[in-house]
Amino acid sequence: MSKENAITPAAFRHLLGIEGLSRDQINYLLDTAEVFTDINRRKIKKVPSLRGKTVINLFLEPSTRTRTSFEIAAKRLSADAVNVSGDSSSVTKGETLIDTARTLEAMAPDVVVIRHSASGAPQLIAEHLSSSAVVNAGDGLHEHPTQALLDALTIKQALGTLSGIKLVLVGDVLRSRVARSNIFLHRVLGNKVVVVAPPTLARPEFEAMGVEVHHHMEPALEGANVVMSLRMKKEYLGQSFVPTLEEYSHKYCITEKLLAKYAPESIVLSPGPFIRGTEIESAVIDGPRSYYDAQVENGVAVRMAVIYLLCRGLSARASTESDAGMEDLVDDEIIEELAHAKAG
Ligand code: CP
To answer: Closest residue (by CA) to atom 6 of ligand 1?
Structure first.
């Protein structure tokens, strides 16, 4: 890994998106997550790495998987995890996002994880926070970086490689932050990415991201290694990108019959939540091609890796500035395991 591509404290101040990360940085994050995957399968899953650190999960949009896994990740690292949700916060009283973030920072968290319906919200608070690291847990239509990382880790485990693959994204690519993060990640790795959806959702603009655009399932699926189902967003259906969900489903639902014919070796992923029978057949999501459970499991490991590396960076900076901080991380087994994993 070249020096400038390494995840040094300077290079990894926040995680706001996949766009801009290098191949080495992505691989380093995934290698670190693999160490945590092993730890998560032990009888005792908790390690002392981040004792005394605090992670605030500021979720101003609904979430099941991401919020829960960030909380579990922080707790397994022995950090204190505090959850703030939209309907129970003073945001409902009209407090601005910047004021909320500054208020939380005054309580000295090390990491602030944010989900927000507005694209760019994590970037905005990162610009206003001086000492906490910010992690994007999904912002509007922009990015969902930890989702793309956990998807990549799942693909690597399932296929044994992250190189030379054809990834097909099916569904609401236009309004999918998961799609955008996956496109950035797989284009950096040199993989082929195909999007398939009605012309209103899979627009020619995607070609500028290095992606092949299709409106019919058969040619899109041909030879796919990974097929990812994207949720048709009910909350936006008023905008009428498809006439009805029934019509959409007739043409674009991922079925075992289609996969068996056009992508017989493919695995299937879904970021969740999914609508059975609309985007994906139950026989597929519950069948042997599906790695959905592995994705959820890897979500914890990836988020542990992100929180761990950010806190490590913050501690290293504190150490440079005031001769304090790094020593509280060096006594744990993770450092040894990471060194061992890297050497191997
Ligand atoms: N994949 C995902 O972001 O799911 P949640 O909305 O439940 O967090």
So the answer is: 63
From the candidate CATH numbers 3.40.109.10, 3.20.20.70, 3.40.50.1370, 3.40.50.1450, the one assigned to the domain spanning 3-143+299-315: 3.40.50.1370
**What is the reported pLDDT for 325?**
39
Reduced to 3 states (helix: H, G, I; strand: E, B; else coil), residue 239 is helix
Question: What's the mean pLDDT in 44-62?
Answer: 96
pTM above 0.85, yes or no: yes
Query: 327 CA to middle of ligand 1, Å?
Result: 35
Residue 58 CA, ligand 1 centroid: distance in Å: 14
For residue 273, is the peptide bond before it cis, meaning its omega torsion is within 30 degrees of 0?
A: yes
Which residues 6+ apart lie within 8 Å of 325 measured at CB?
A: 314, 315, 316, 317, 318, 319
Q: Residue 97's closest CA among 84, 107, 82?
A: 84
What is the edge-to-edge ordering of all strands in the sheet holding 54-59? 80-85, 54-59, 111-116, 133-139
The closest of 34, 277, 327, 325 to 156, measured between CA atoms, is 34
Q: What is the pLDDT of residues 126-182, one digit of tens each?
A: 999 999 999 999 999 999 999 999 999 999 999 999 999 999 999 999 999 999 999
